[in-house]
Amino acid sequence: MLGKRITIGVAAVAGAFALAACSSAAAAPRPAAAAPAAAKTPRCTTADLSLSLGKPAEKSDAPGQFDVPLTYKNVSNHTCGLYGVPGVDLVGPDDPTFGPVYHLPRVDNGVKYNEVTPGMTATATITVLTPAEGGKSWTPTKLNTIPPGQTRALTADWPSDLPVLRQDAATHPGTYVNGILADPS
């Protein structure tokens, strides 16, 4: 009986200490986590940006696949954040199977955060698979892109000599848009 009373007494004391520790921890103010500097910089809006497409370059490790730089320039008078993967639609002739718009899949392989000062740029790359020789050809006329976190699009003319293999229903298509990377200052 004495052993049972000691066990209960020890449990009661331990419980009291635990309760006291919890209540004092709850009452003690916790230091606020410092917000990263990036969180203070607003995202770039569509109105903050201009758009240009660079010259397509064939990938050395994948014949028939090209990279097209999709470059956003901060035309505002303030620094803004540009990161993530933009939405990209290629628009061209009406394909009998898929229609006139090819919604490109996104690959999130860009930088986690990127501040773009006025006049500077950031680039996402569009990887394009061209049709095999003699294959069905579809050449877009323009590109519409929505910067990450925005709802309004920017438009650019598509290079007239760069056909795209339409793979709208493919699980792993050869044409897609990559995440935004910081351009060197």
UniProtKB/TrEMBL annotation:
InterPro entries: DUF4232
Keywords: Signal
Protein name: DUF4232 domain-containing protein
The keyword Magnesium appears for this protein: no
Organism: Amycolatopsis nalaikhensis
Signal peptide: 1-27
Pfam families: DUF4232 (PF14016)
Superkingdom of this protein's organism: Bacteria
PROSITE patterns: PROKAR_LIPOPROTEIN (PS51257)
Chain ranges of the DUF4232 domain: 44-161
